[in-house]
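Regression report. Comparing outputs from two consecutive submissions.

Submission 1:
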Amino acid sequence: MMNQKNNYNFSELNKLDRKALFLVLGTTLWTVARAIWPILAIIIVKREMKSWYLFAVIGVVTILTFATKLINFFYFSYQIVDNELIIKKGWLSKSTTAVKLDKIHEVNLNQKFIHKLIGLYVVNVDTAGSSKTEIEINGIDFKKALALKDLLTTAEQDIVVSNEIVNDNIKFQHQNQSHENPIPKIKISLISLIKIGLTRNYLQTFGLMIAFSFQIIDQFQDFFYEDDASVYDDIFEASYNQYLGLVGVVLFFGLILFVVVFNLVRTLITYFNYQINLKDKHLTASYGLTDSHIISVPANKVQMFQFQQNYFQKLMDLFEIKIKQVESNEDNKKKKGLIIPGANYLELSNLFNVIFDKGLIDLKAGLKPHIRVLVIKSLILCVPVIVSLTIMYFTDSLHFSWIILPLFALVFLLIFLGYKNEKMVFKDDFIVLKSGIWDINTTYLPIDKIQKVSISQSYFQEKNQIGSLNLYTAAGIVTLYYYDFNILQKLTNEILYKIEKNKYSWM
């Protein structure tokens, strides 16, 4: 890879590839089409094609948009000087962005479908505390993009390692040990992707499909009523008693089948040919069918390590792993990092060991939220049930209570499972939080990534000596709800003591 780096001189001003002119044209047409498609749709529907001046305006807007993007293309440049990535852009309004290499948290190579057609990549550089989500270099060939990524990540790693040698020789020894025993490349097989695709994101996709189905039903009803309401009513009345139940069952199972197939196809397209390996203390993942991605994550800047597993995935020894990093800014709630679908337990353990130089923690023994939480949630659940049954009693509708009582039992079971599965462990400089009902999430939060600790209590919690612990990190806030207040105080003191004693740096 060093030879590849030497083929390019990034210390001088570098321009985008000439083939990126096709990207300029494509993005221009897409921008204009997205802005004017409602107007064009109205013109086509009403067949008012004689408005030549409207098409003239569209043509002028297209030319101006293309000229603007063309100027941005020719006046865009990037270089690396004195351990800084410098981006220059603009003609009349010039701007220069400089990012220190040791502040870079992630370097991604992305290739959308239009980029694949012309053989170019987008390089996205994510940093903490920047005004924008990322720095984007849109339009360089694969070899140059790979060389730039390699230079940014290895140069940044050299800075980090040199600081560690001065401040902490132990960390340097751990790095040598990890280089002596590198893990093999992890490749998620097609079978594993199919398994994880069939068993993930049920509720999210199911909710979207239900909302989408209601929209379609409303449109069909409006169409039938506008054309011939009496015909629609006759059909509905004739089929109500005989076919409605059958149609409902078919639609329900059809919706479930659609959700499963949709999840499977989306997973295969997104994570096709998923590979991840370790080089220079960086996790580098590559995946994607229509859109290709190459993502490099520095191991020392991982903020949280999270994995989840449901019942079916447990039977197949599969985990979905999320490696979270620093948010770009407060307005951007999307955490940066990696999602690794379909890893088995051995691969999960290897990844954890690579990042933290430690093994996974035994979670058999741990602290649970106070039992009052289960009681309070159950009492809150009883309120709507009692109100509903009371209304049914006074309206002579108690024969519908068979709907309310099973729902009550189901929701209570979900509340109980949520309480049963929740657990917190503080061990080996990690806070581990396990929670969930169907998808059981396990979050590992290193002590050295905690920026702030606070305990919150409501008036009623104060009387019962219950509180919630808030752990602020660069990747978001982790909250431990409704634990014994005395335990939380001891935990807070121990966390703060370890942070002060070891002088951790969350970056």
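Submission 2:
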Amino acid sequence: MYICTLEIKKYSVIMRNIIIAILSILFTTLSFFACEPDNTLASSDWNGNWRMNEDIIFPQTKNNQNSIKTSSGTIKIDPNNERKIIISGELFGLNPSFSISASVVSSNATFDQKVGIYQIKGTAVLNNSNQITFNFNITTENSNTETYNRIAIRI
């Protein structure tokens, strides 16, 4: 009886060690795969100086020559949130003190923000390291809306 109990304890210790070894291998494997890069973060290719391929004519003053805005400005990754980019207002022909925050998943961005008297809503696609396609609406405080499709080129 004593020998049988000793064999059971020995078997229990061996099984416990096998289970610990399997769990260790599993944990190590999971830790290794957890270290892969997060592809949902904003690509560093967003950073830089950009120029729109066409001027933006703001909706409330279509017949006013001053409503035409030549658009160049900067885009940078938000230092406080790597899933956001900050688009300078100048890129949309706005005051340089304005900026637009956009949520990013890899090479796609979305934004919907009130900037001054304008509501700007749209998307941006980073086509490659030198080109971004913007599709957006600008709505004024008196509900005049204009839709734009612009390409920005790195300068």
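Expected: both submissions complete independently.
Actual: both completed, but the second showed a warning that disappeared on reload.
Relevant detail on submission 2: The two ends are 86 Å apart (CA to CA).
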